[in-house]
Structures are given as C-alpha cells and as structure tokens.
Amino acid sequence: MKEFSVRDIILFSQRIEQESYDFYMKAKEILKDQDTQDLVHDLAQSELGHKARLTRLLNEDKPADSELDKDLNAESPAYERLVNAPEINEKSTAEEILKTAHTREENTRDLYRMLISLTNIDAAIVKTFEDLVKQEEGHANLLEKKLKKLH
Q1: What interhelical angle do 94-117 and 34-59 show, nearest 10?
Q2: Which of 24, 62, 68, 108 could be 7's S-S partner, Cβ–Cβ 3.0 to 4.6 Å?
Q3: What is the pTM of this model?
C-alpha cells in the first residue's frame, strides 16, 4: 500500500487526461479517414474538458486544504498501471488505434472507479469522479461502435 493525498489523486488524474489528449492528437495525425479523424478530435477536446474540470476542482471549487491533503491508501502497482495501453505510431492501423483508444478509456474509467471507492473523500470530489466515469464509459462506447463499423 502507498499513501496518496486527495490532491495527488486529482493531479494524477489531470496527467491522465493530458496523456489522453496527446494520444488522440497523435492518432488524428496518423489516421487517414476524415470521419475517424473527426471522432478522435472530438475525444481529444473532451479530454481537455475533463482536465479543465479537475483543474476547477482544485482551483475554483476548491475543497478545504485539509480535505485535499488527506492521505488515502491505494495499492500502488494498481494505481500506477491502470491507464497503460499500447503505443501507436505512424504504421498503426485505424483498428489498432481505435482498440488502443478503447483500452485507454476503459482503463481510465476503471481507475476513476477505484478512486471513488477510497474512503474519506469529499462528496464534491466523488461527484466529479462519478461524472468522469460516465464520460469515459461514453467514450469507450463510441469507440466500440466505430470499431464494429470497421468490420
């Protein structure tokens, strides 16, 4: 077990959203099909929205410092590996990119579910992560539909 503060978890979540944004922008450069490029562009913009929401949580909706600095126990290896997904490159096919994106969305959703399960988190923080779970699930569903169309 490793201790993380609520602030650490929110900052970690911001990094995940930035990585997802970067992934989608790279995917957009690789993909050839305009419809798929539009999908990943929309997903990239959504990831920026998620990051902005987490930033607002820290800066504007700011819970008390005592709440943000509260230590929580989390299984460190699980915490660090949940958003891993294969890398993409210029040779990646649309199917490989969409499968990787789907994996990223599902892993991010699962990470947020794990964070919600941690005890002693402020209700506003839990609500934010519950909303993010729903949005990541929606992204995964969009990607799944697009993958089915490729077949």
Answers
A1: 20
A2: 68
A3: 0.85
